[in-house]
Amino acid sequence: MSLLELQRVAKRYRDGQLDRVVLREVSLRIGAGELAVVWGLRGCGRSTLLRVAAGIEAPDEGIVLFEGRDLAHNREGVLGAGIGYCQKHLGSGSQMVLDVVMVALLAAGISPSQARVRASEGLERARVASCATLRISALNTAEAIRVALARVLALEPRLLVVDDPVQGVDLLERDGILALLRSLANDGLAVLASASEATGLSGADRTLALSAGELRGPPPAELAPVVALRRASARQVGA
């Protein structure tokens, strides 16, 4: 059984007096240990697809199943537990990184001492433990993405959903973040990500293109010659 399954999902938004269709009968399956990346131009519906897949938004038609259960009836019990949606905004720049990662754990009723341990483990897993005592304002873009990932990883999800993880990240830092996602999948975590550029496709087990609301096979031919990342060493992942 797939960990996540979308069955003929449709999503539309009201635009004045017109309905704008964003997703049309999208079907997708993702299993544990798989890294799937959805590519598409800005405005194609990538972010909407990921929010629907994570249970943040409900589809207008179709079904989203997580571990065989309909998210429409179980969103509150799954989002933040089995499903981790990566919010890249970290909040106030004056906050300390470790405190930011601890917030969701404390909100879940975990004791402060245990929350600190799990937050530290999340930062270590995201290869950004050295930033634990820094202020958010001191982070560069790549570090901020890793901290956002650590905040989700500390919750120990089985599915990680992240929208365009290398957007705005310096070219020299992108491979490290993509290698991190690859290593998380290698460890058994299911990862669903999106990409707006060809560089964001590296290392994926499966790449799909979203266009006119329809999810298709591999991206266009001009994006095909993307060299997959090799299984990274700990040093490479932390680069």
Q: Can you walk through the features of this model?
A:
The protein is α/β, with parallel strands linked by helices and 239 residues long. It is built from 7 helices and 10 strands. It has helices at 46-54, 75-78, 97-107, 112-125, 141-153, 171-186, 234-237; strands at 4-15, 18-30, 35-39, 61-66, 69-70, 83-85, 159-162, 190-195, 206-211, 214-216. The strands form 2 sheets. The protein has a 6-stranded mixed beta sheet, with helices on both faces. A 4-stranded antiparallel beta sheet has the order 2-1-4-5, covered by helices on one side. The longest helix is centred in the last third of the chain and has 16 residues, at 171-186.
- The best one-word shape is globular
Kindly report the CATH topology of the largest domain. Answer: Rossmann fold
Main sheet attributes: strand count, strand direction, barrel closure:
6 strands, mixed
**Rounded mean pLDDT score:** 87
Count of runs of 4 or more consecutive helical residues? 7
Order of strands across the main sheet: 6-7-8-3-9-10
Count of discrete domains: 2
* Assembly category: single chain
Radius of gyration: 18 Å
Structural class: alpha/beta
Query: How much of the polypeptide forms β-strand, as a percent range?
Result: 25-35%
Straight-line distance between termini? 35 Å
CATH architecture verdict of the largest domain = 3-Layer(aba) Sandwich
Q: What is the CATH homology-level superfamily of the largest domain? A: P-loop containing nucleotide triphosphate hydrolases
Reading off the top of the CATH hierarchy, the class of the largest domain is best stated as: Alpha Beta
Helix content: 25-40%
Poorly predicted sequence stretches spanning 5 or more consecutive residues: 224-239
What sequence of helices (H) and strands (E) makes up the elements? EEEHEEHEHHHEHEEEH
Number of DSSP-assigned strands: 10
